[in-house]
Amino acid sequence: MQVFGGNLLSVAAVRTRPMTLAGQKGRVALRVATHSLHERLHGAPDFAALAQGTLDIAGYAGLLSRQASCYFAAAKILPLEPGRLELLHSDLATLGAEQPEPLDWPNPAGPPEALGWRYVVEGSIFGGRVIYRQLDYLFGERSEGRSFFRGTPQSTARWQALCSEIEQEARSPLRLNRIIEGAIAAFTAFGRILDIREPACA
Length: 202
Description:
The chain has 11 helices and 2 strands, in the order ββααααααααααα. With 202 residues, it is mainly alpha-helical. The protein has one domain: Up-down Bundle (Heme Oxygenase, Chain A). Strand 1 and strand 2 form a beta hairpin. It starts with a strand and ends in an 8-residue tail after the last helix.
């Protein structure tokens, strides 16, 4: 049983979704199967405040530090882009934010599960360009402190290569299900760190 932000989600329940309909592309199947997890993560208080332009610089530094703990943990089990991680270290230093120790995350069960993990981790990195623009209210035209989200010249090519690999593997319904299980595990791992709720008032 997997836990995400207080919600329970069993693999058996996920398998009841239409993950392998005839003609369905791998990434479409991934989006369908992980939609609720993805939306819940984006609805976390700090992400919501950032999107609304109300997260202050201290709150952003704390959020980036928590994100960094996830990415540094993922880098121990996945082939992430080194240049992007260097930008993350630099942004943390610019903000005077904590350089977190990497978390210990288990290795994916096999290559298909690793693709699911990479879909989540590298997808969130590639999609960081949206966050980069959202941070204009804090940084103006400066990139220091948010350069991780802008990315590198290699970022687009890396994402396109990963998408091609996913589509190749997704031709097998069995491997597609395993890719989805890996993606769910990755969202769950991120959710435990980033989907942080304020304690209820007494």
